[in-house]
Amino acid sequence: MTRRRWEQSTPFEERVYAVVRRIPRGQTRSYGWVARQLGNPRLARAVGQALHRNPDMRRTPCHRVVAADGSLGGYALAPGRKRALLRSEGVVVLKI
DNA sequence: AAGTAAGAAATTT
DNA sequence: AAATTTCTTACTT
Q1: Contacts of A28 (CB under 8 A, 6+ apart)
Q2: Which domains does chain A have, with CATH numbers?
């Protein structure tokens, strides 16, 4: 049962959360967009990892981060949950 | 300490 | 559309 402790945010996560938190409510951003803010558009995958390890999903609007092609991308919890959250903010998901 | 494996994408051809 | 590329973190040895 080697459970992962130290769920503290890593230096990289800290940077990702700073950008994600900056996203205005009601708008969606893509992983690449966040990655670009970090200085490297190819960090998209690392960004997704950081969000997955999100220590405060209630605080970090990880549901506001979607894929670049308009897809919802992924979500640790139920996928429909993400769609509902976005709809609650007035975001219309064109692609599924 | 070093190496290996996996991950919620993006990019390029 | 398919394959490749890229970065980070976690676990194992």
Answers
A1: A64, A65, A66, A86, A91
A2: 11-88 (1.10.10.10)
